[in-house]
Structure formats: C-alpha cells, structure tokens
Design a protein that fits this description.
Layout lengths: L9 E5 L4 H12 L3 E6 L2 H11 L7 E5 L5 H15 L5 E4 L5 E2 L7 H29 L2 E6 L12 H23 L4 E8 L6 H4 L1 E2 L7 H11 L4 H13 L4 E4 L1 H13 L3 H14 L5 H4 L20 H20 L6
Parallel strand pairs: 1-2, 1-4, 2-3, 4-6, 5-8, 6-7, 7-9
Helix pairs in contact: 1-2, 1-8, 3-4, 4-5
The structure holds nicotinamide-adenine-dinucleotide (NAD).
C-alpha cells in the first residue's frame, strides 16, 4: 500500500462546480495540488475557484466546457497543459446528470443527453488526458460510476447503462495499463447516495414516477453521505491506488448484496425501489398509455375456441397502447 502526495501535482476535475466535484477540487487544493476545475456552468465553476481562493493564486483555475463535446474536451486538455506548464497527473471524470424515465417512455434526446455526459464524457476525458498522464510518469485516471453501475433499478435504465459502461471501460483500462507497464493507476468510484444537487438537476421524463419536488425530497431523505465526506473517501482511495472505491455505507451494503445474491438482487431492488419510484405517481393511470400485453407464448399450444377472446382483447389493448403512445405529448418532463 503506497501513499501518494498531491503536492505540486496537477489534477483535472470535471463537474467541479457542485457536489462531489467541488468537494474534490477543494480537498485537493488544500493538499497543495494544482487543480483545473471544469464545469459546464460558468458561475458554478467561478464559485469553486473563489472558495479555493485563500491566497492560492493560480493554483486553482476554472474552465468552462461541455464534457459531451469531444473536440472541446481535447482542446481543453491542451489548454490546461499549456496554462499550468506541466502535464496532468490526475483526471477525475466526475461530471454527471440524472434521468428518470421508463424504457417504454424514454425520448431518444434524453437518452443521448445522459449518455453524452455520463458515458462519452468519461471516455473523452480519459482519452484526452491519457498521453499527459503517461508523460507525467505518475498518472491516475479516476472515473465516477455509481452503485447504479453495480445494480439496476426501475426508471433508471439510461443511468444504469452509462454507469455500468463506465465501470466496464475503466476496469478494462486498468488491466491494459498493467499489461503495458504504463505508469497510470486507474480507479472506478461507486458512490451511494450523496447529498448534492443531482436530484434537482435531473430530468424526470416519466408519467409513472415521482414529480421533481417529490423526487428531490425523497433523495434528501435517503442520502447518507455529504460531498465533503465523499471527497475524503475518494482521495483516500486514490492514495491507496484502489481499483474500486465504494463511497458511503449504502454502497458497501449494495456491493455485498450484489455479490451474495447474484442476479436475485433484482427481487430485492424491486421490493425496495418500486414503491419509492412508482409509489408517488399522481397521474400514472391518466397520463400513461395502457401497458402492452405480453406476446402469446409459443408453448401455449394450438388456439382453442376460447383462446380467441383473450387474443382479441390483447390485440385491442395493443392498438390502444399504440394510439396512446402516438397521442403522448412530445415530452413528459
Ligand atoms: N449524488 C449521488 O447520490 C451520486 C450517486 C452516485 C453517483 N453519483 C455521480 O457522481 C458524479 C457527481 O455528481 P453530484 O452528485 O456531485 O452532482 P451535482 O449535480 O451536484 O454535480 C454535477 C456537476 O456536473 C456538471 N455538469 C453537468 N453536465 C455537464 C457537462 N455536460 N459538462 C460539464 N459539466 C457538467 C454540473 O454543472 C454540476 O456542477 C456524477 O457522475 C453522478 O452520476 C452521484
């Protein structure tokens, strides 16, 4: 177990205008690390730079760009190296957004927005900075996944897809760095519930789930860990070169549950999460199309005279569902 000093190193933190990213930037700055704090929100990133202040001069600098814009990310990698006059040692791909939508209702534009930030943004950040990390001789990639990169829940398919993707991509990168003997450590971070702004800025594009206000209240109630505590755990994990960093007691419980139950975790997740995610729905019956019936099983045998009635009902329901889906407004968010 080798501890690492951050003094004089250069760290790049995305999503540094709020929550976990801001807390990471401030913690690293206190340790004498130079920090490029990046965010899409200019005022948020200015706030982080101001908070880091305290006579630190140019030690913490703000950069504004969209992590889902590949060219912008690569341009900024060059700019950051030239501004600080040294290659980056650490990239923390932390920027992220939330989306609540069922697979049935999800709009492609919402799905693509989420994947752009939460998945592609992580890949762009990793690949834009990898040459600098190697050049530094002491590099570290830290990609932020989630407990939703270990288990799935209802209405979170896009988030799950991105976070499982981040985990797979990051774990593969770690094996490659080892195999190629390159001086780059790699960690994947799986936070549990952290009390940040993510619920407030999430898109809720579902007629069956909670509304924004209920979702934010619920999120506040179930989150156990502050951003400051999360940053301290992540930084301890980086210093210990951990491949997987679990953040918060709930992350440890979920990790254990997934490993002991295997795929049967889905039953527990359904029992715990369905009432939370669907329970508060005020307009589920009115706003959502009727559910599409399951296709008849091929094992069901030859149709009998009686079996025509259910099939007719199923065909009618399917038509109603299609009509309902057509009548659904462009966006339900
Ligand atoms: N808060 C939690 O409970 C929790 C749990 C698991 C994982 N996470 C992950 O932790 C990370 C940080 O989230 P947080 O909870 O601190 O959220 P947050 O909303 O407080 O902060 C996210 C930051 O990312 C920035 N951002 C959003 N889109 C961006 C873009 N396109 N380009 C650049 N910056 C962008 C936002 O402006 C914001 O400052 C995310 O990847 C999130 O998925 C959070």
């Amino acid at each position: 177990m080798k501890l690492k000093s951050f003094q004089g190193k250069l760290a790049v933190v995305t999503g540094a205008g709020s929550g976990i990213g801001r807390a990471l930037a401030l913690n690293l700055a206190r340790r004498g690390c130079k920090v490029a704090a990046c965010d899409i929100e200019p005022e948020a990133v200015e706030g982080t730079v101001a908070l880091a202040g305290g006579g630190r001069g140019d030690q913490v600098r703000g950069y504004v760009f969209d992590v889902s814009d590949r060219e912008a990310f690569f341009r900024h990698a060059e700019m950051i190296k030239s501004d600080f006059g040294q290659p980056a040692n650490l990239i923390i791909n932390n920027a992220g957004v939330g989306l609540g939508a069922s697979v049935r209702e999800m709009r492609w534009e919402d799905f693509e927005w989420l994947m752009g930030v939460n998945f592609w943004g992580v890949c762009y950040g990793t690949q834009a900075f990898l040459p600098q990390l190697i050049e530094s001789g002491d590099g570290h990639v830290v990609n932020v996944s989630s407990i939703y990169g270990m288990i799935s829940g209802p209405l979170t398919s896009a988030y799950n897809a991105a976070k499982f993707g981040v985990r797979g991509y990051t774990e593969s990168l770690r094996i490659e760095m080892r195999a190629e003997g390159l001086p780059v450590e790699v960690s994947c971070v799986h936070p549990g519930g952290i009390r940040t702004n993510i619920a407030k800025s999430s898109r809720l594009a579902t007629s069956r789930g909670p509304d924004q206000a209920d979702f934010s209240k619920w999120f506040e109630r179930i989150t156990l860990t502050t951003p400051g505590k999360a940053a301290a755990i992540i930084i301890a994990g980086i210093r210990r070169k951990r491949p997987r960093i679990l953040v918060g007691p709930d992350a440890h419980v979920i990790d254990l549950m997934q490993r002991t139950l295997g795929i049967r975790y889905q039953w527990v997740a359904g029992v715990l999460l369905n009432p939370l995610m669907y329970g508060k729905s005020k307009n589920a019956a009115a706003a959502s199309p009727p559910s599409v019936p399951a296709a008849p099983s091929p094992a069901a045998g030859k149709p009998t005279a009686n079996s025509k009635a259910p099939r007719k009902r199923a065909a009618k329901a399917a038509k109603r569902a299609a009509d309902g889906a057509r009548a659904e407004p462009e966006g339900v968010a």
